[in-house]
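Box 3.1 A note on notation
Throughout this textbook, protein chains are presented in two layers. The first layer is the amino acid sequence; the second is a token string describing backbone geometry. Keep the layers aligned when reading.
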Amino acid sequence: MAENKSARPMNRKRKKVCAFCVEKVDKIDYKDAAKLRRFTSERAKILPRRVTGTCAYHQRELTTAIKRARAIALLPYTAD
């Protein structure tokens, strides 16, 4: 029984890479609702960095863009 425990392979998670840094995006466009939807949950909440893998700079930009898109009704505040 002790041998089975040590024989298990270790499942290491790969480090997530910021999608905006890979594409070399300077400013996130708040009018691009399709891209912004990828970073919100099905309940219309903004997903955290640990889930999406975005860097701190782009997470702040993303949050601002999502809030602007919500203000002009491109994205919902809550899920229907």
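The mean pLDDT is 88. The CA atoms of residues 43 and 80 lie 8 Å apart.
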